[in-house]
Amino acid sequence: MTFEVAGEAYDRFMGRYSQPLARQLADWLELSAGQRAIDVGCGPGALTGVLVDSLGADHVAAVDPSEPFVAACRDRHPGVDVRQGGAELLTFDDDTFDVAAACLVVHFMSDPVRGVAEMARVTRGDGWVAATVWDLAGSRAPMAPLWTAMAEVAPEHPDESDFQGGSRDSLVNIFEGAGLRDVESVELAVTVTHPTFEEWWEPYQHGVGPAGVAIAALGADDRAGLEQVLRRNLGEGPFDLTAVAYAARGRA
Predict the structure, then answer these.
(1) Rounded CA gap, 226 and 232, in Å?
(2) Residues in contact with 110: Cβ distance below 8 Å, sequence separation at least 6, in sequence order
(3) CB-CB contact of 51 with 76 (8 Å)
(4) Using CA atoms, how far apart are residues 131 and 108, in angstroms rounded to an integer?
(5) How far, in Å, CA of 200 to CA of 1, rounded?
(6) CB 64 within 8 A of CB 41
(7) d(CA 128, CA 120)
(8) Rounded CA gap, 214 and 207, in Å?
(9) 123-134 β-sheet, strand order
(10) Backbone angles phi, psi at 39, to 5 degrees
């Protein structure tokens, strides 16, 4: 529901962080020519594009439950097998891929253990299954300034700190619960320079993800108060924000 938005809206909101994060994840997976890979929860295709650059479009598949995101991913990456669907029931045969990856998706799965287990099912033995999730529990996600200000202006709105997979232990536990072997985790950091406050703030106005939904639910006075607190905390720009994600990988 919170991701039935145009791919361009998501790009402005999260793509500036997810694209460099996707490149780091792909580097960690040590991709090699001839491998087949699937991007689970592909969104508009940030990680899909990185996989295509490494392996070729005919060696990449992608899946996402959002129809607008599927359409955007297909348009951006011709030749990729892009399907609409959820991680918990992948429409691919067993042992189809050498690598299955999910970038910033596990915490939105209705059943993360089942979703990761499905990723393992479609991955050949000894292939990597991997995922990234922002450090939500540690308030190191790109949205952290928003949630800090929201706690001051409208503390009744829940943040994302309790989402599954939003801490190192939670993400590793999901992987181990899905039956993966040799599970390991690292931190991946992304720093983005925002030239102005408006450039940072504008994408939050389009209802993307839990942050966008929370803002849309505010009344006019609370929304104005939220912007005032954010301007006080962040300044008018330019400013740098560093976000940290946990990445986990395990053998299928």
Answers:
(1) 10
(2) 86, 88
(3) no
(4) 12
(5) 23
(6) yes
(7) 8
(8) 8
(9) 81-84, 60-64, 37-40, 97-103, 123-134, 239-251, 181-194
(10) -100, 110
Sign of CA dihedral 117, 119, 120, 121: positive
Sign, Cα dihedral of 216, 222, 228, 229: negative
pLDDT in tens, 41-83: 999 999 999 999 999 999 999 999 999 999 999 999 999 999 9
Pairing of strands 239-251, 181-194: antiparallel
- Evaluate if pTM is beyond 0.70: yes
Domains annotated for the chain, with CATH where assigned, are 7-251 (3.40.50.150)
> Contact at 8 Å (CB) between 154 and 218?
yes
CA–CA distances in Å: residue 4 to residues 1, 7, 10, 64, 70: 6, 9, 10, 11, 10
